[in-house]
Every structure is written in structure tokens, then in C-alpha cells.
Amino acid sequence: MTESAAAPARTPEDEHPLRAVVLAGGLTFEREVSLSSGTQVVEELTRAGLDAELRDADAELLPGLAASPADAVFIALHGATGEDGALRAVLDLAGVPYVGSPAAACRLAWDKPAAKSVVRSAGITTPDWVALPHSTFRELGAGTVLDLMVARLGLPLMVKPASGGSALGVQKINRVEDLPAAMVSCFAYGDTVMVERYVEGVEVALAVVDLGDGPQALPAVEIAPESGVFDYTARYTPGLTEYHAPARLPDDVAARAAEVAVRVHEVLGLADLSRTDAMITPDGEVHFLEVNVSPGLTETSMFPMAVEAAGYDLGDVIARLLAARAGRAR
């Protein structure tokens, strides 16, 4: 994918610019990141010749869409509001076309342990994990349960919420004595925590987009955080992480990573766009970590980097996805 894509910025039935509503904000920990993504998308779509409007996911959204219908909606909401499938189910009920994965697929992808189970069943490698709700530790004794986790998974470990994005609550644990505090911190972001075996290697973001010919992987983006852990601070603080797009991988490993990303997109039933996060070990094995159905689109986000590395324009890509959804709705 090296040629620039010319986006159809008009509807199939008339000569008026396609009207797009970009949803951003929401009431989650990722609100500010979402607003940054949404603002960026509106700017890109405006440059691409579309009539684009930024809207929040609040009580005024559905009446506003009913009064002034959009040809299609682009969801730049992060966190539960935009990724757990609930909002998409409501848009389906209202007959509003939107870019992105259907509600059921989003629910599956949002639940990281469930997504890992499906991906592993499809033959894709993913680190071993244990996911338990807060009640289990309270009822059975935190110390005993944590000891069993360490005995099963070893050290180091990655502790993360079982659902959520932007690496909120994610911590790498090298010492057993640091695990209890990490668990307490992680429970602030959700009732269930996933503890995962840490995989040493190169972290990559694998973007997938479907512009009408089936899902295709864009060049991998290599992530090299200064701290060694790609947490929230490393993601959104300029200068704390070095990115390489395309990733510095041998051709055969890059091809294998691309195949994994497309396979994940397909087995989870995703649509239009996604971003798979993976670790690549020194021997070239690709380990699936998680998938994002509403990837970040800020200035430090990996999806736009992958689009640029492929020789595409971000506004054109999003415009094509919106035009396709508007056409399918008709």
C-alpha cells in the first residue's frame, strides 16, 4: 500500500460534500485523549473536503442526529464509551451508519481475556495470563491467590485492567513484593485485573484497514519507550517514546506480524479498522497482546504513523471509510 488514496468526498447520490459527525469525549478516564483524536479527525476530514462536525456522546447526541442526520459517523471515542459496543448498539437501533466494528465484535475485543482466548483458539500465540475479579481476592485471600499467580506465570509480570485502553493502570512487575500495590492501583480502573506473563522483545503496533478489498495490514510501528514500559505517560508525553515506522524488522518477521494482525481482525469479527498490539521476541515470534477497535488518532498515536508509512493520507483514508459506510446505508 504505497500509492496515495484519493478519497471520495461526496455522497454517491449528489454533489454535496459528505456530512460526517465525529464522536469524541465521553465520560471515561480517556476523555482528553478522545477529544484530541476527534479534533485531529475533524481537521483531517475538513482538509479532505468533507463537512465534518465534532460531537460528544451525551444526551444531545441522538436528538441532534435525528434533527440533522449525518451521512455517516466516525467514532473517535476511547474507553468503554466508544469500545465496549454499547454506543454502537444504540446507533444500530437508531439506524445511524458508522465506521468501525459491530457491537458484538467490540464487546469481545473490549474484554481482553476473552479476546485472548479466541485468538489463542485460532492458533495465534499470546502470553499466558490469569484474570480475576476483585471479589476473588477479597473472598479467598489476596496473599494466597497472588502466590499462586506468581508460581504459575513467573516473573516479570504485566498487570493491567481486563478492559480499557491507553495503557491506564498498566505496570510491569519485577519483584513479588511490588505485586499487591500494583493490583490495588489497577483495580481503580476496573473490577477485574489481568496478570500476564511478560514477554521480552520489541513492541509493535499493527494497524489494519479495509478500504474495500478486505482487511490489509499497514506497516508495523515499532515502539521504544525510554522507560522500557509503554504506559500512559510514555504514550502521551512527547519525547518519552521513540517510534519507527516502518518497524526495524526483518522482512519475513514484518510479513508474519502483518498476517497476525489481519488474522486477529478477522477471527474477532472486526470491521473497517483496528490496531493490534504485539511483542516480537528475539527469535521472531509474534505474541498478540490486545486489539483496539477505536485506535488513537492523536499526534503521538501509532495508527496515523502507520497510515503515513504506507503512503496514505489519514484524512483520505477516513473519508473513504465514511463514504463506504454512507453508501452501504443507502
From TrEMBL:
Keywords, comma-separated and alphabetical: ATP-binding, Cell shape, Cell wall biogenesis/degradation, Cytoplasm, Ligase, Magnesium, Manganese, Metal-binding, Nucleotide-binding, Peptidoglycan synthesis
InterPro entries from the UniProt entry: ATP-grasp, ATP_grasp_subdomain_1, D_ala_D_ala, Dala_Dala_lig_C, Dala_Dala_lig_N, PreATP-grasp_dom_sf
Co-factor: note: Binds 2 magnesium or manganese ions per subunit.
SUPFAM superfamilies in alphabetical order: Glutathione synthetase ATP-binding domain-like, PreATP-grasp domain
Entry EC no(s): 6.3.2.4
Annotated Mg(2+) 1 binding sites: D277, E290
ATP-grasp domain location: 116-323
Pathway: Cell wall biogenesis; peptidoglycan biosynthesis
Keyword match Cell wall biogenesis/degradation: yes
Residues bound to Mg(2+) 2: E290, N292
Catalysed reaction equations from the record: 2 D-alanine + ATP = D-alanyl-D-alanine + ADP + phosphate + H(+)
Cofactor: Mg(2+); Mn(2+)
Enzyme's top EC category: ligase
Recorded coiled-coil stretches: none
Xref: Gene3D superfamilies: 3.40.50.20, ATP-grasp fold, A domain, ATP-grasp fold, B domain
Biological function: Cell wall formation.
PANTHER family: D-ALANINE--D-ALANINE LIGASE, D-ALANINE--D-ALANINE LIGASE B
Protein name from the UniProt record: D-alanine--D-alanine ligase
